Amino acid sequence: MANTIELAQTGKRDQLVALEKQYQAKWQNEHLFEVNAPSQAELKGLSKAEVLEKFPKWFGNFPFPYMNGSLHLGHAFTVSKIEFAAGYQRMLGKRVLFPHGFHVTGMPIKAAADKIIREIELFGPDFENYETVQAQIEAADAEKEKEVVAPTGDPLDKSKAKKGKLQAKSTGHTYQFQIMESIGVPKADIKQFADPYHWLTYFPPIAIADQNAFGSRIDWRRTFMTTKANPYFDSFVRWQINKLYKLDKIKFGERYTIYSPKDGQPCMDHDRQDGEALGPQEYTGIRLEVVDWSPAAKAIIEGKVGGRKVYMVAATLRPETMYGQTNCFVGTTIKYGVFAINDQEAYLCTTRAMRNMSFQGITATRGEIDNLVEVPGTSLVGTKIKAPYSVYPEVFVLPMDNVLATKGTGVVTSVPSDSPDDFQTLTDLRKKAEYYKIDPSWAAFDPVPLISTPTYGDMIAPAVVKQLKIASQKDTKQLAEAKEIAYKEGFYNGIMTFGQYKGDTVQVAKPKVRADMIEAGLAFAYAEPEGLVISRSADECVVALMDQWYLDYGETEWRAQTEKMVAKMEMYIPETRNAFEKTLAWLNKWACARTYGLGSDLPWDPHFMVESLSDSTIYMSYYTVAQLLHENSIDGTKPGPLGITPDQMIDEVWEYIFCNGPWPANATIPQEKVDALKHEYEYFYPFDIRSSAKDLINNHLTFCLYNHQALFPEDKFPLSMRTNGHLMLNGKKMSKSTGNSLTLKESVEKFGADSTRLSLADAGDGIEDANFEEKTANANILRVHTLITWCEEMVNDQASLRHGPRSYHDNIFEEEIKELINITQSHYESYNYKDALKYGFYELQTTRDWYREVTVDTGMHAELVLYWIRIAALLITPIAPHFAEHIWTAILKEPKSVQLALWPTPATPVDRVSIEAGQYMRGTTKMIRDAETSLLKLLNKKGKGKKDEANLFDPKKPKSVRVYVASLFPEWQNTCVQVVKDSYAVAADKVDDAKVKQLLTERGLIKDKRAMPFIQGFKKRIAQFGAETAFNRTLLFSESQVLSEMLSYLKKTLNLVDADVMSVEDALPKAGEPGYTKTIIESSEPGCPAFEYRNV
Fold this sequence. Notes:
The protein contains 40 helices and 32 strands. The chain is α+β, with helices and mostly antiparallel strands. The strands form nine sheets. Strands 6, 7, 8, 9, 10, 11, 12, 13, 14 and 17 form a ten-stranded mixed β-sheet that branches. Strands 2-1-23-24 form a four-stranded parallel β-sheet, covered by helices on one side. Strands 4-3-19-20 form a four-stranded antiparallel β-sheet. It is globular, with a radius of gyration of 37 Å.
């Protein structure tokens, strides 16, 4: 059932959509978004700085989308950050380059195509046999489900069935052909997608159409797709990879990598259905030789291991603590296997762990496991084992509730001195030995002090368990916290107090102990994925140790140079910079080649292809020349205006263009043609901003920085990057399976382009997740339609508007418009579109509404109405250009497109007096309304005294209001302000609270209940407006004058017979007379008048 809303009426939307299509066609016909560098003649003799001053440019881009489906609203959200910026930068008179390419490298398309092939074999070319075959499959599955219990009496492992359901869980569909149908591909056409290259011709044109319907300002001449499908881009990747190889950035060697056994190759982030950003976790595998099986284990295992010596294998991250092993834990609900390693040895662990080991050179044959016998964890309890390095040479296997089959080997070494989990479990076992069915002697080994820390002494785990008041191993949440505390404390602050490296820090001892144990044959290196990783082919991935080509990210010098680059870049928000710094701290070697999927060949080893995150690190530079190589030709089949062919783009030519390399003697292309490419690149590069979802910081965005640092001169390094959160829909995560999903096309068809764009701008700008609210998009349809109608009426009905001299309210209205222009611009400059929309669209209309109300007697001034309409169109142009275009050209009759209009910078500074006077008027009106509301509430109270006081005013009778204006602040307030001023430190921009209390005491105000609340409010004013403004309490305008100007409006809007203004000085002598209440008069302050209602 769909969770998205249905529109009841679509008439207004349909009118707006018709206008949008009209203007989109106009923009495309006029080629408004195609931009070129100034001619070489125009730039002759100018320095780079002079070029940018005379011919300013802006180049923004975003990560190109992967073409295995249509663009969804999340794509549109990320695109919008550059799209809105492109619109604004155009208004600054810059040459704006906003290009858009298409990513098709990697596994997803090939894997999906292969699924189509298999499904055609299964169901027929048009899947006509689906229902019959599927019924047979489900019947067979039902039979298997009846086999609930294995021969050993233990539950069967259903993890494989779960893996098979992952696809259905994420998409709502089991088969690829169903997914294709769900995204609008006719069933009769699906068989064509068995060819992976068909995807490359099918989806990019749809994306282009969707972007055009969205109104994007994209220069489509520069579009391209990756892989060998575009030979020009293929040659560009060849140059990039060859240069990295020559610079020794690409290396070959044995290393751990996430690997798909089914696909037979590394499974990098973009190849994954689940588990993106997870990498290998390296452990030390401790070999715990079995000395004596428990009776239950002996009954199962004896005679089935071929005389092999059996080792229980425990995976640990803390080899330095092995001196303190007191026992070994197993999970009582876990099924273990005894696996042959060779003819002499066998390992006991989970099947999942052994599957990983089989790809790490630990088993005899790569990828093959020989399970000699299975044994339940309960049967292993009581087994005696050798504990390498421990002060207790032989210990026992004990049960533990919290052992996970999905992490490590399922076997856990117990070091209760330093592991809170181990300590608490051992404590529980000792207390309830009979309950846990163990011999108390098995748990009799006491914890051994190993590591000393300043905070927790030499027994970290018991101390942390006591601190967090943990009472049982079932306190999993507290134990997780305790584990983190203990590990960090031990690692960063610990000193070894036992063993060969006594006196060394833990950080120093850890790798030494590990190396010693491995060298002695007591341990081995083991790795597994940090979490569940599922490939696009629905395979659970492992960690494989394999020879492969890799980019040496993390290499000390390269990392330092990239960190230096990041330090100079603009990141807009601290969270983005922090995320880059953290990624640079952990990111290391990255497999850059694969054998399966689509891509460009690895030049020196064509058996491999460049993987999908390695051919997409510097393609932003390719945008600058693409239109000259293959204009309007996504696959490069149509050569560009220079007539250059792909074979002419040799590495040396690319080096000449991008890195000022020497002109190659073997070039087969005239140098002047290559100079034309170089000219475009030199003008537009580096890019000014790259905007992306935050999750790409962990890979693509950081790769982009590494590669720019290695390949380009410093003046071509990226200038800035911004990131955003993911987009929710109606406050919930977008999901096809739940129906809470919208593609870009669906949103534009449902709400129109501008309503969609307005809602995307309103969704949010920070790194936290944003929210697209369909109700907001729907409301925007009416708002935009109403605004257009009003503008048309005002322009067509100029005669009914006021002409001639400007009034007081006219002047304030104009200044408020100018103020909103400047505020809106500041938010566009900062890429804060939610606030740009707030001030440049919503607040601008609120200001107009106030002006319309306050001039209801005299009417609005014609010149100002036209000025407002003009400004309204210009300020919203970056975000909602279609109706801005309609207002600009159809209503205001401007001869050129609003896309060519410049930002309306005010000719004179904003008059602060007028701004504050306007704010005062609105605030005062609200205060008067609130005063009446409070009075009405008072009337409804039946308390004695209050009722008599309230009877002085009857709201049902004709009424008037008197406004009391004060020229001086109360003396106690002046004293409090001086106290704050005397306690304020200018350099620190901070108020010393201790000094405030001291001065209040000295000046006799410490017990005055009014003082501290007033001071707290005043400190907030300092924080909001700055100390200088806060301490200067003098009003910039005359209160009496402003109030006099608005009396007519007040009488009308508040339904008053009369309203008058009186100074506090004149009113106080009359205090006590009817209609003159002393407490009300005295409550007036400068800028905050008091109000008294009376009947007349």
